[in-house]
Design brief:
This protein is of the alpha+beta class. 22% of the residues lie in helices and 37% in strands. Strands 1, 4, 5, 6 and 7 form a 5-stranded mixed β-sheet that branches. Strands 3-2-8 form a 3-stranded antiparallel β-sheet. Strands 9-10-11 form a 3-stranded antiparallel β-sheet. The radius of gyration is 16 Å and the shape is globular. This is Nudix hydrolase domain-containing protein. It comes from Sphingomonas humi. Keywords: Hydrolase, Magnesium, Manganese, Metal-binding.
Length: 193
């Protein structure tokens, strides 16, 4: 059974008890704006994950590595439709090119979003085009590397007057951290359950 097969099966299993719920500290309230991201896994012998680098001028998460995604709009039929729409807008990934496997576990961000990762498979080497206003770069990182606990470092920093912990994954000079890294950690924990 391949890593991709194991991940697909893990999405159907009950959630393990050690998942990261989000960035909020005990007692903090969030707006819980509904958002969706697409964890697009490339169909190849050693699958990868499509990631973006957000433009520096954006209001939130500027310059960060992220999954394609964003807020759920009223016209979106459901969470998966929102993730697919956002991926099409941000990286030119046709909705019809994604085979949705399922939804992973929600993650609440300190910026007030309740993000649902939608996991799916896409053909490798599709001709994608980064949205010039939102995406500075687009790249693929190996799924096995991202889901290896040895590459997921727990870090801490002071933010809004409190000590917060987060995860960081370094790959080929890229810093994948915060909510994106936490969602990958949650996928890893699902695999290990």
């Amino acid at each position: 059974m391949t890593l991709a097969d194991r991940l697909r099966a893990a999405l159907e299993a009950p959630a393990p008890g050690d998942l990261l719920p989000g960035d909020l500290l005990d007692g903090e309230e969030g707006d819980d704006v509904a958002a969706a991201v697409l964890v697009a896994i490339t169909r190849r012998p050693e699958p990868g994950v499509l990631l973006t680098v957000r433009r520096e001028h954006l209001r939130t998460h500027a310059g960060q590595v992220a999954f394609p995604g964003g807020r759920v709009d009223p016209e979106d039929a459901d969470i998966a439709a929102a993730a697919l729409r956002e991926a099409e807008e941000e990286i030119g990934l046709p909705r019809s090119a994604v085979t949705v496997w399922g939804m992973a576990d929600p993650y609440r961000t300190v910026t007030g979003y309740r993000v649902i990762p939608v996991v799916g498979e896409v053909d490798a080497d599709l001709p994608l085009l980064a949205h010039e206003q939102e995406v500075a770069d687009l790249f693929e990182a190996p799924l096995a590397f991202l889901l290896d606990p040895a590459n997921q470092r727990r870090m801490s920093a002071d933010f809004r007057g409190a000590r917060r912990h987060y995860y960081e994954i370094a790959w080929e000079g890229r810093r994948i951290w915060g909510a994106t890294a936490a969602m990958l950690v949650n996928l890893t924990r699902r695999l290990g359950a």
